[in-house]
Amino acid sequence: MRKQHLRPAMLSGLLLTGLLTATFAQSALETQADTAGGPLDLGKMWTFDAPPTAYFQKTYNFTADQKWFDEARLASLRFADYCSASFVSANGLVMTNHHCARESGTGVQRKGEDLNATGFYAKTLTEERPVEGLFVDQLVQIEDITSRVQQAMSAVSSGPGQLEAREQVFSDIKAEYTSKDNWKGLELQTITFYNGGRYALYGFKRYTDVRLVFMPELQLGFFGGDPDNFTYPRYALDCSFFRVYDNGKPLKTSHFFKFNTNGVRDGEPIFVIGNPGRTERLKTVAELEFDRDFQTPATIQLIRNRSNALQAYNVTAKNDSVLNEIFSYENSLKAYGGQLAGLRDPVLMARKASFEKQFKAAAQAKNLPADQLKTWDELAANTAQLRGLFNDANFLGPSERTMGELLTFANVLTQYNELLTSRPQDAERARSLVVSPVVRNSALEEAYLAAHLTEAQAGLGTDDPYVKAALNGRTPKEAAAYLLKTTKLNDPGFVQELRTRPGAIGASNDPMLVLARIGFPRYLAAARQARQISQRQEVLRGQLGRMLYAVYGPAVPPDATFSLRINDGVVRGYPYNGTQAPIITTFAGLYDRNYSFGDKAPWNLPARWKNPPMALLKEPMCFISTNDIIGGNSGSPMINKNREAVGLVFDGNLESLPGEFIFVPDRNRSISVHAGGMVAAMRYIYKADRLIGELTGAPAPPAAKAKK
Question: CB–CB of 686/609 below 8 Å?
């Protein structure tokens, strides 16, 4: 299940003041050695602003003209603000993943229904259920605004000033285009490419009448659960279908991908169109080493501890929302674990260093301005400063999920006390927020606080004043229990006295406040410095992006920014676990996995799946390809050269996880539900004849009878 991953920021915290944290020769691109880094390590997420016509022709002997790209773009959709989708019929039928649609799908269930357990299929149009609040966006207008934005930024010298100038010109452009004839009524979004090397204005046609048509049971959509996540071979029917309505009737559209259920061939070129969420492949080696040594390990530890706390709590609570949160944490742990393994891989880091050297040499050869050529050194110097600030900014940052509600509130009170002296007007405005928190779950509160103290002890050291004051000879678990038992911050009367009696907050010996008075000033100082450095880093990354575009042009695609992209690959297996991964899995494998685990969760199957016809077992279920995807691509259609839908992307393998910072297609694989597999499930299990006919353009043949 390819999802956007949790990203606890280094500068996260609950603060009243709101403190936040020329074209390279194509032949050279294609012949870059596997052992040396090169431009294509930045990936193949091409934009529709500069479609890779020549690249497709040379690589696949395939001519994709402007009409091909236009039709592919108009048939593709953004599903809400977190996934991708596509039109797959002339009557507004929309295809996306089950894991993208799960919340929307279950949101329409009626009293007495459990659509996670039963799935859903509308046998008639009238049974299709409207999903309140759901929308899909179709990209219909693109305008290059690079020159205007860069000119506005260049007129300002300071880093923060440049960022403010950028936001102002974004706002001005949107206001201007709102009244233009071809842009009226569209959802407008400014898109940043190459970290600021290019900018575009996108206009989306938004459809808000979206209705659920088909959704399999959770056990099929998420078969194998978290253990099978990011693995292959895979057996998941991770698909759902919706329909867009226009003026109360199914939308009529000529822009859609016809279903091709005949399969995919080994070595066949294949294309994914979707909205990859975020990559950071333009990061310098210095920045990646910071992630490797500091940010990513700390993030993994934080998520692991919170997931453990929730799992322990849910043993008795058995709360579905908590279970979903655990799934999200575990998904993120696999993702970050794979990224960290990549960052610690000397071969991958050597590739990054190799490309950085090539890039510098190419920029010098192109006679770019001397101040631009200093960008790498400036980024490295800033990153070195961030290393020195990391511990205080990371381990002392207040947040309910990092240190619990009461210690976070103690930090809020400490800042409020500072505002009383330095900015009384701000303090007065914040007074209403200074209320005693209601701790809803004491077990989780203690677990989060104990996790925070454990992390602070490991990160800051046992001799650190904050750690010594917090533990006072106790273990983190013992200290958490003591602090929660002793504090009075959950007493509204005590908090009211702190708010109203001058000097009470600074003089209080409440152990939570004592701790916050030590930690919060350190956090605030580090966070403020880190924020200034990060703003400068953002400007420098934009400078780096401008150089990248000046050197390589559109022959190298930009990092992912949850904007519509098309990427190419081929259907291909890969060596794994001492053997070879097949390009296709079948429904027989689904049942093998089910039987091998004794029909136990998360490999159990609903009753109607337990007696399959033999014909189903032979049908393809999932397949793999070398396409370059990342979170946000979930729900993306997989199409062939004829613009036919042959699959539906839903995940990547473990080997794809370093794709956050580098794309190496040797073993990187995208995993898709096979178009033929979706139709086979509809035919043999769900008896969804109406949907089969719409997808394939032909009446569904009689379904084989299940064995008695």
Answer: no
CA distance 660 to 643: 28
pTM over 0.85: yes
How confident is the model over 117-164, as pLDDT tens digits?
A: 999 999 999 999 999 999 999 999 999 999 999 999 999 987 789 999
3-state secondary structure of 201: strand
Exposure of 492 in the CB half-sphere (CA atoms within 13 A): 3
- List Cβ neighbours of 75 (8 Å cut-off, separation of 6 or more): 86, 87, 255, 256, 257, 273, 637, 643
Element holding 621 (H helix, E strand): strand 620-625
Domains of the chain: 285-538 (no CATH), 567-696 (2.40.10)
SS3 200: strand
How far apart CA 98 and CA 92 sit, in angstroms, is 18
pLDDT tens, 262-281?
989 999 999 999 999 999 99
For residues 589 and 233, the answer to whether their CB atoms sit within 8 Å is yes
CA distance 165 to 155: 9
Instruction: For residues 426 and 448, give the distance between their C-alpha atoms in angstroms, rounded to a whole number.
Output: 30
Asked if residues 643 and 656 have their Cβ atoms less than 8 Å apart, the reply is: no
Q: What tokens were used for 404?
A: 């619990």
